[in-house]
Amino acid sequence: MWTTLATLATATLPLTACSAPSTPRPPAAPATTPAKKQPPPTLAPGPQGRTPVFRNAPRTRATPADAPTVALTFDADMTADQGPRAAAGERFDNPALVDTLRRLKVPSTFFMTGRWAEEYPAQARAIGGDPLFEVANHSYSHYAFTRDCYGLPTVPAHAMRTDVERAFAAFREAGVEHPLPYFRFPGGCYDDRALRALAPAGVTAVQWDVVGGDAFATDPDAVARQVLDGVRPGSVVVLHCTRSAAPATERAVRTIVPKLRERGFRFVRVSEQIAATRTPRAARPADPGGTPDRPEQAATARN
Ligand SMILES: [Zn+2]
Question: How far apart are CA 140 and CA 186, in angstroms?
Answer without folding.
Answer: 10
